[in-house]
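Allow me, if you will, to draw on your knowledge of protein folds for a short while. The matter concerns a single protein, recorded as an amino acid sequence and a row of backbone structure tokens. Kindly check, if you would, that the fold set down in the tokens agrees with what the sequence suggests. You will find the record immediately after this paragraph.
***
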Amino acid sequence: MNNNKKPSYLYQYACREDEKQLAALEMRSFFGQDSDDSMIVESHVKIDPSRSPFIRERVEIMYEGSKIEDIVEQVKQIKLENTTFKVMFIKSSDLEKKKEFGLKQRRKIEKEVGLSIDGEPDLLEPQVFYGIMNVNWRWVFGHYEKNDATWLRHQTKPHSYSTALSTRVARAVANIAVPDPRGIKAIDPCCGIGTVLVEAISMGIDIVGSDVNHLILPGTRENIAYFGLEGEVKCKDIREVTEKYDVAIIDMPYNLCSVITPDEQLEMFQSAWRFSNKLVIVTLEPIDGVIIEAGFKIIDRCVVNKGAFTRQIIVCEKVNC
């Protein structure tokens, strides 16, 4: 293995049919590319698979070859001292469709590869996981990491609303807004009960929240603290935000108590233009014209369905006038 070679990672996505557009938008945000129907992305970009509600697993490629024998020969280079390991055959969605590699064959491959590694195997509680995978009839082997589905635990927060984003959608929106948190300051200026805030903060994103409704904010703060997280949440109108941010996330008000007019929408986006360079909007209504009039250009988008709701996720960049 060439130690100077830039690391490469294989990510396998899994989602429902009605989530494909959202998963694809998250892919483009993370990796700058879409996947084909196999829902597999190969990239030099390293992403913790647990950040995404759609990435099922990641293999950091150490070795590859056209035949399984190529992998068996290469893994002999691995020397593990005082470290246990396990080799797992990772079924790709493409192989599942083709019904290739049954259980018996997969276990045989795991054993064959594992016996070639200089180390102590442990099938129950290994210290290191390796994955062996066949992608487009090319074999790859490397360190394996599975998604821990953190967002599922966030479904049990003390306060929630039926019209709020699901934790899966909220987590994806946070990733779309901030695919790489390093050096990025974000704001959710209409944070509501804090669904996006909880997901973003839990991923280490530097984000603050604010909302004009002071009655809701104690519940927002309690939701954040409930998971042992810390985050700043203030009672503030979006027009009063003066600090500068790299990105803002706005989940547009849409319940019966918070209907806003097109003029109010325009004022909201114009306010965001003053303090943010990038804007990710969640909306039930068609608002492209208002976005453009406020001084943003739309660079990407998708549609997300939840029951009777059809939301648009719109990614915008500031147009400097």
